[in-house]
Fold each of these.
Amino acid sequence: MSLHTQVSSDFDPFSYDALVVGSGYAGSVVARRLADELNYHVAILEMRPHIAGNAYDEYDEAGVLIHVYGPHIYHTFNERVDAFIRRFSDISDYQHRVLADVYGTLMPVPFNHASLKLAFGEDRGEELFQKLVDTFGRDQKVPNLKLRESEDKDLQEVADYVYKNVFLYYTQKQWGKKPDEIDPAITGRVPIFTGDDDRYFPQAPFQGMPTNGYTALFEAMLDHPAIDVFLNTDARRYISVKDGEVLVENKPYSGEVIYTGPLDELFDCDLGPLPYRSLDMKFETLSMTQFQPVGTVNYTTTEDFTRITEFKNMTGQVLDDVTTIMREYPLEYTRGGATDPYYPILEPENIDLYNQYKARVEGISNFHPAGRLPEYRYYDMDAVVASALELSDSLIAAHS
Ligand code: FAD
Ligand code: UDP
């Protein structure tokens, strides 16, 4: 890779076979595969001063490796994604565990066998666990909203407890809405688990942390002689879409364009901005070796922030008498302000608005929206990699 802090005066977009907007997973995976398999000369235009998108990590002033855009834990069920990622980094055997602070008692989330005993006491907890297992089977994931529909009094008791103590206040902080007012798929990400696996992503066969961090993983992925990365470069300076055609410097462009930024911004938000929730992340370095027992503690009944992450607990970095933690304070996203668009708000009117923007790029054979922003999706990293692998498969097939 050749990495440039900005485009030079002789930058010629027409000298590339493909232009990629954004250097997160979506852009970097496609760039690497086009370079590897089609010998394409690829330019990545990245508006931030660094690569790796929201997965970017760096060492803070205290020497602690932190995740600048929020805690990122790699996990997947997808073998192809895992094999692709491991080409560029070893993955540690870190297994993410999260505890909910319920009025001072720490309980595993997703709520599982151990959590039931902590919440209801040894005997009653065991009884309720058996009821869950008899109803849903062992080692199953049951969305709490589904459990709430049960007619059974015991199951309702569990559902009510989890609703009130795990989901209600946290979700109100995170989304400004109650759990039953948001897309059920969102709270369904954290189901009740009818077993003993106390990991945040129960049963996921591949999980861990890139051993030298995410930025190093991206450096390796982009380390290819045919890939040029230009930082601090807003691609909209060069690329536009008008009347169903991609223009580069206002001229027709026949190469491939992979666009991983927001679709509304490509059109100056002329139909209105797509709404997002954002986060104010407050980092704090403390003079102690360890602050909390696990990577993340969710504050589900108290506090204004949703969760605290302690990075050393996730990365495995060993440093005495110093640690950095981060609190997440949810807030609305305002375009052009200091916040970033983190979570799409998946409500019908927003999805309609998104579809109107999408209609403007559909059918343009050399313009490919890819990733969490242009697809307006709540995507985990592995899902973005899977989708970028598929997109590159189709481009490779079309040009081979
Ligand atoms: P991004 O990483 O956002 O990359 C898009 C890039 O495009 C950015 O670098 C942006 O600067 C650039 N760009 C946009 N517009 C332009 C433009 N006009 N010109 C030039 N560049 C442009 N996933 C997990 O699997 N595990 C986790 O633990 C996890 N934790 C998360 C925690 C938080 C707080 C959040 C918000 C997300 C988390 N995710 C997690 C999801 C993960 O961040 C995303 O799935 C992933 O980063 C998406 O990659 P992407 O390439 O689609 O987008
Ligand atoms: N959630 C909750 N309490 C928790 C954990 C999650 O209410 O202890 C809800 C909340 O609405 C959150 C959603 O479940 O937005 C998804 O949680 P996840 O941890 O997957 O969110 P992310 O890590 O993507 O922010």
Amino acid sequence: MHIVHQITDLRNKLEAHRSAKESIGFVPTMGNLHKGHFHLIQNAVKENDHTVVSIFINPLQFGPNEDFKSYPRTLEEDQEGLRYSGCDYVFAPPQQEMLQGKPEEHTKIKVPRVAEILCGKNRPGHFEGVASIVCQLLNIVGPTNAYFGLKDYQQFILIKKLIADLKIPVTVKGVETVRNKNGLALSSRNNFFSSRELNIAPHLFASIKEICAALQAGNRNFKLLENDAQKRLLDNGFQPDYCSICQAETLKPAAPDDKDMVILVAAHLGSVRLVDNLRVSL
Ligand code: PAF
């Protein structure tokens, strides 16, 4: 496994594979790798000749009051875990390699509407920061396939649109969320929970499953279902941001005759903001 810090170094190494018509799978991450990331990496390893994992905590996607400074930085442990994952290249650039000058002066990519709703409403600039860095990483790696977790469903839809609109020659793959046995989706931010909060956190996915059951039973009173779920979350100690039943591909509010929907929820628990979702095909 090669650990690469410089863009030109990575490009030179990958060029040899491209010339030999070998496929490259790419998993972008912000490090602090857990089973969810390794599931993405397993998919990439299975489906490609070579796998690149990037580790870069992207300052562009954190708001001024968010956890950029305290975001877990565990490069050594991550590299250890990656050694046994089948990953061929770890790309871990220093900030200076990716972003020269002040973040606010860096070129940004805007994905209208998808970036402004749901999480985008409460995290202004977040998706611009994600789109900009993902575009940069795809330009650097030039992968055949790129892998993203479906836990960040809005991010996945945004990246699919970005790639389609900018005609970036890569296939985007969404990989199912890995959960612990209580249903809590794995996330680097789960590390910040106290043991009391860890017991409460699974209620988030439980509330999504209740909505799913109601939809499957024919209930189409979306507003009521959304409001009831938020009330239950509040009663359980969360501060809900939103609960939304949307069309799965466009993230527009669901209509009663839609067959492919997604339930998206975001809520604060203690100092952590959790997101989760579930697709419902009727
Ligand atoms: O999902 C993430 O970890 C990040 O948003 C990503 C895609 C690596 C971009 O920084």
